[in-house]
Specification:
Elements lengths: L9 H8 L28 H6 L15 E5 L7 E6 L1 H4 L4 E7 L2 E6 L2 H10 L1 E5 L8 H12 L12 H7 L24 E5 L2 E5 L5 H12 L6 E3 L8
Parallel strand pairs: 7-8
Antiparallel strand pairs: 1-4, 2-5, 3-4, 6-7
């Protein structure tokens, strides 16, 4: 039993809820009694976001932590074929520059130094098959695909017969530009590797796969990887 208005996370009650018998013949609430569904409800986090009070993953701070920024090929599928880190390493605060399968990483003692080091990098890319991709070629591929048969999700009735018998047909094409599915903060991750385990601060919608990737990359057992909640990001 919990006190009235107590905040309880799902994890604490999941095991208990799993033991509750599944009810049969549940009487659904009448739509006239809805308080949230279909109603204009205010978001509870808006004020904190616009006033800067919200704590993000990027706010994580640990003793003696270093910062890294990644320079990737601007073309999807491309890779780094060579780079000169001389000017980057000359930037005050830059500790090292290394190449990874995803690009070139600048490691520094502050975000500012890391970003300035990134700007000073000289990188040569192999853009690969995506080098000639443009908005025009993408549109052309979509137009081509639209004329080809697709995978039916569900077949109901006879659409071709219905269209053939239609007294009036309307044919229209709708196009929209690419839209950014962007987060409120830059993509980031803070990792604290210790002998007894790994703590990870990551604003992510996939906590399970995040733990798995960290465990795989670091070569540690999954149970030793802990994904820390954003409410404890600042330490």
């Amino acid at each position: 039993k919990m006190a009235d208005n107590a905040l309880v996370n799902y994890g604490r009650i999941a095991s208990t809820a799993a033991q509750v018998p599944v009810p049969q013949n549940v009487a659904l609430k009448d739509p006239s009694q809805y308080k949230v569904i279909g109603k204009p409800v205010k978001r509870l986090d808006t004020r904190d976001k616009v006033t800067g009070k919200t704590v993000y993953g990027l706010d994580a701070r640990l003793p003696k932590m270093v910062y890294a920024t990644l320079q990737r090929c601007p073309v999807l599928g491309g890779k780094v074929s060579g780079f000169d880190a001389g000017k980057a390493k000359a930037v005050t605060g830059v500790k090292d520059v290394i190449q990874t399968p995803r690009g070139v990483v600048v490691i520094a003692d502050s975000t500012w130094a890391a970003m300035q080091g990134k700007k000073a990098l000289i990188v040569i890319y192999d853009e690969g098959e995506g080098a000639n991709v443009s908005s025009a070629t993408i549109r052309a591929s979509f137009v081509k695909k639209a004329s080809e048969p697709g995978a039916p999700a569900r077949k109901e009735g006879d659409i071709q017969t219905g269209l053939a018998k239609a007294a009036k047909k309307i044919d229209a094409v709708y196009e929209v530009p690419f839209l950014a599915h962007a987060p409120m903060e830059p993509l980031n991750c803070t990792v604290h590797v210790r002998p007894e385990g790994v703590d990870v601060w990551a604003p992510t919608q996939s906590p399970t796969s995040t733990r798995a990737v960290v465990a795989q990359e670091l070569g540690v057992p999954l149970e030793k990887v802990r994904l820390v909640g954003s409410d404890t990001a600042v330490t």
